[in-house]
Amino acid sequence: MTGPVLMSDRASARGRRWTRQVLPWCVASLLMLALSASAERTLVVGSKNFTESYLLGEIMAQRLEGKGWRVTRRFGLGGTLICYEALVSGEIDLYVEYTGTITEVILAGDVAPERDALKAPLAEIGLLPLPELGFDNTYAVVLTADRAAELGVTRLSQLADLPTLRVAFSHEFLRRQDGWPGLRERYGLRQRPVGIEHGLSYQALLRGSIDATDAYSTDGDLERYGLVTLQDDRAFFPRYAALPLARDDLPEGARAVLADLAGRIDDERMRRLNAEVVVGQRSFAAVAADFLAAEGFDASPVASATWRDELLANTVRHLQLTLIALGLAVLLGLPLGVLVHRSRRASRVVLYAAGLLQTIPSIALLALMIPVFGIGVLPAIAALLLYSLLPILRATVTALVSVDPLLRRVAVGMGLTDFQQVRHLLLPLALPNVLAGVRTAAVISIGTATLAAFVGAGGLGQPIVTGLALNDPGLILQGAIPAALLAVATELCFEALERWLIPAHMRSASSV
Amino acid sequence: MTTASVRLTEVSKRYGTTTVLDAVSVEVQAERTVAIVGESGSGKSTLLQLINGLVQADSGSVEVLGEDLSSADMLGLRRRIGYAVQGSALFPHLDLRANVCLLARLVGWSAERMAERFDHLLALMELDPGLAGRYPHELSGGQQQRASLCRAMMLEPPLLLLDEPFSAVDPITRVGIHEHFQRLAASEPVTVILVTHDVREAVALASALVILRAGKVVQQGACADVLAAPADAWTERLLETQLR
Lengths: 512, 244
Fold this sequence. Notes:
The complex is a heterodimer.
Chain A: H1 9-37, E1 43-48, H2 51-66, E2 71-77, H3 80-88, E3 94-98, H4 99-106, H5 115-124, E4 127-129, E5 139-144, H6 145-151, E6 167-169, H7 171-175, H8 180-187, E7 194-195, H9 198-206, E8 212-216, H10 221-224, E9 227-229, E10 242-247, H11 252-259, H12 267-278, H13 284-294, H14 307-340, H15 344-359, H16 362-373, H17 377-401, H18 405-413, H19 418-448, H20 461-470, H21 473-501, H22 504-507
Parallel strand pairs in A: 1-2, 6-7, 6-8
Antiparallel strand pairs in A: 3-10, 4-10, 5-8, 5-9
Chain B: E1 4-15, E2 18-29, E3 33-37, H1 44-51, E4 59-64, E5 67-68, H2 74-78, E6 81-85, H3 96-106, H4 111-124, H5 141-153, E7 159-163, H6 171-187, E8 191-196, H7 199-205, E9 208-213, E10 216-222, H8 223-228, H9 233-243
Parallel strand pairs in B: 3-8, 3-9, 6-7, 7-8
Antiparallel strand pairs in B: 1-2, 1-4, 4-5, 9-10
């Protein structure tokens, strides 16, 4: 059998052509992905999805490149746990972490947030804390200067007298023991904070829709927006000294290179570097290069990609993610649908399972994929595949179940094999519905794939994630607008595909 | 002695507690047209589906074209049995030609052989060759029925099963199709088993009748014999009410 399942002879000739054009492309993309994974070892530097982490990642990357190392950047990973998983699974070799975070989130134990104390427990899990960079980026609770003056607060303990204060904290802060839960206990606070994406909280603060939020003490935005930090008068927050956290198989040479950075960035320096990016609107790469030059290191030439190149690269990656996931979802969903549709119970079980997958929030599903697939393209594709499965499965099963039983009886009676019944009767009749299901899955995938940047898969989510970190709406739009256009283009493509594959009289029911 | 195309011996079929066929024995001679007549619910459609294996008998034996169904290669056998049902059941996504030629294509007929047989059947059924590229919904009811017969006869089967194939068309069209059917049956060496609730149709098309009532064969024999001597009062009434 050649060709996908299509309508008439004419259509199936077109289908074979279609297969010839698209299938090799999909296979080639998969091969490329596989090859890129097995390429000669380079150091992979990661970062979390906020300005300082990007910047320190870039500084480390350029420093290593200046010493002749090949470096891959996996920046903007969505949170401590994703970075940690990536590090442990070997998807990245190092990223900058904070001692307090290591104590609270990674080790979840009573280890002092000092490098020397952390060494032994980290060694047990194959990790290595490199020398501290010099600054302490502690958590802080911030308000606008005006609001703070209005309320007359300067210290955290005063918040106990303001139970109706409107507070919004980043999701990580809300959960961490060294965040809200511990803070509330230590200071006896009664506010009911809501969760907010950190990149949005300053806007909310400035517009007066919230009164207070969490921040990092070295945040370049604090100065820019005139925010004030409440004094931690009961010494609740631990020390958050920044240091490169690496796998213990990091080559000696690289360790030495990074150890050179030790103690070179104090609190004030870090705040200024951050401000150069968020206030000065300069690129991470340029700020990092200036810093290294000022410190007397050989700066590696900064190859800054134009926004056009980046847009193209992001769009191509986005399409790769969606198309591969969608292709696999069709290859999996269609046969599965055919297999289970005869049994009402099996159909229900399968649809239920697929529906359950769909209810897992996409960012959570992505995070769940990391222990299995690491970070990068694979977990993103796997998550998108699982998301695409339900609409395709449901459309397939529904369409197959509604095929006229008399037609089925005739097909069996005239001597068609099981496969021939599927190929020449069931699937062609189901095609309009199946195509509609694939179309839905495609549009969902394009939207969801913007989250893939959180697990280092790139795509149009990259500028969105970075834009959130930089509080830069322009950058966010650079991802959001192309993604929206892609979704529209996808709709149009599917309309054309329907017109092309399905005879007019069978089209009306499914395509409006 | 003529050979039997189909021989059912003491065949019973139950669905749950309902007995649909009760120890039915029927023999159909080769190249004859036999009509199975009965009211709805008499089990006549089930009986037909026993012959091409769409329904399995609970007991008794079914022998078709010299093969016992319990051990036959069903796929091969079905391809030697034409099958047409009520309402034509043409595949809506295929045009007339693709519908009729589907099985021939799948079993690997050459394009010439396929075209020749297709043209022949179309001519026999007086279907305009210009209709070949039309989809079923673009054909009239009568044209669909005739196309359905063409599809059933495409592989030159020695046995043709018809399950009320003409009941969905209006009476005038039906008379026309009857003529087409008779021409087909006369020009091909084929045994036909026709299921119908219409005694008039049965008598017009078949040379022998099998009268079925509530899963039992009440009477079987040549049309003239059955009409001349109905087995019981119920059969007499069935024949009379419809033939009067």
